[in-house]
Amino acid sequence: MPRVSPDCKLKFHEPLANKTTIRIGGSARFYAEPANYSDLRVLLRAAELYEFKSFCLGRGSNLLVSDHGFDGLVIRFSASAWRRVVSLGEGRIWASAGGRLKEICGFAAKNGLAGFEFLEGIPGAVGGALRMNAGAMGSWMFDVVERVQFIDEDGCYQDLPKEAFHFGYRKVEEISRGIALGAVLCSADGDSEASIRGRIDSYSSSRKESQPRGASAGCIFKNPEGNYAGKLIDEYGIKGMSVGAAEVSEVHGNFIVNHGGASAADVIELVQKVRAKVKAESGYILEPEVLLVGQSWDEVLSE
Ligand SMILES: Cc1cc2nc3c(=O)[nH]c(=O)nc-3n(C[C@H](O)[C@H](O)[C@H](O)COP(=O)(O)OP(=O)(O)OC[C@H]3O[C@@H](n4cnc5c(N)ncnc54)[C@H](O)[C@@H]3O)c2cc1C
Q1: Average pLDDT, the chain
Q2: Which fold has domain 83-208?
Q3: Is 137 in the pocket of ligand 1 (CB under 6 A)?
Q4: Of ligand 1's atoms, which has the minimum distance to the CA of residue 150?
Q5: What residues act catalytically?
Q6: In which band, very low, low, confident or very high, does the pLDDT at 191 lie, cut at 50, 70 and 90?
Q7: Long-range contacts: 129-132, Cβ < 8 Å, 24+?
Q8: How is domain 9-79 classified at the architecture level of CATH?
Q9: 32-44 per-position pLDDT tens digit
Q10: C-alpha 124 to ligand 1 mean position (Å)
Q11: Is the pLDDT confidence value at 142 over 80?
């Protein structure tokens, strides 16, 4: 405690459910909101010294936290220093790890920078989107990345261009083993604010029509090669299947909605049932896109 700045928040047994969009899960044994880079360094050093596992929490929109919580240190970039989104000129934007995607989308529109419209409606922050290579409407995060500043798996600070990363569908190898601090994002083209806003509005209405409004963690499964998880779930009549208050959405088959009071165990059981049915009907084995915190999918899924 004395080694971090007075503005660094440190808590014990901090509930995590209210920090996720699906609103499920237990507590973090240790929880920190570093106020600056030096706090972050102290926290990582402490975790190493005392041999705690550590985990970065973004806006919790792609996570299922175990009912038992996380027995380690959760770090969240919600202090103002981590939410900076500024123009660097020449179509480029600096976005810190805690910056909200929605804000970047709006900022780009206001500055006449095209190419960020797909971020509309993805309820995450920059760090989580870099880690997941979040995508929609035919674009993904690494389309707009120029360089990323991060701490690598050995604890070394790195500032690397896009070409240095191994990225693909919902995965960026280097960032999944490290901590993203922020990125320089760049726009392919300029456009008028009005036409950018027009595209944002049209993406937003298609999301409203196709996605449930209830508490969820977004798409629960990755799309298997050559098919769509949501389409398979729909085709085999799995929509509406439920365990406790967790239900496969009637609006979009690849969303599991928490109607209030669902546990992580309910969601896990539902994931098992959906997978088993899809496998039996089609042979496809669906892999979770949502990350399980405090347990591992390998542990809870039979294959
Ligand atoms: C209604 C809804 C719609 C969605 N639509 C989409 C969509 O269209 N496309 C899409 O791709 N996703 C979608 N998602 C999922 C989710 O919003 C994205 O994956 C998002 O990028 C996750 O960001 P986050 O900040 O919430 O990350 P979190 O869920 O908090 O974390 C996700 C992962 O990122 C890691 N992480 C977080 N911050 C950092 C950091 N600074 N450094 C390293 N790792 C970090 C976490 O440790 C975790 O492994 C949707 C979710 C919801 C609820």
Answers
A1: 96
A2: 3.30.465
A3: no
A4: 42
A5: 170, 219, 289
A6: confident
A7: 129/58, 129/101, 130/97, 130/172, 130/175, 130/180, 130/183, 131/56, 131/58, 131/172, 131/175, 131/176, 131/180, 132/62, 132/170, 132/171, 132/172
A8: 2-Layer Sandwich (3.30)
A9: 999 999 999 999 9
A10: 5
A11: yes
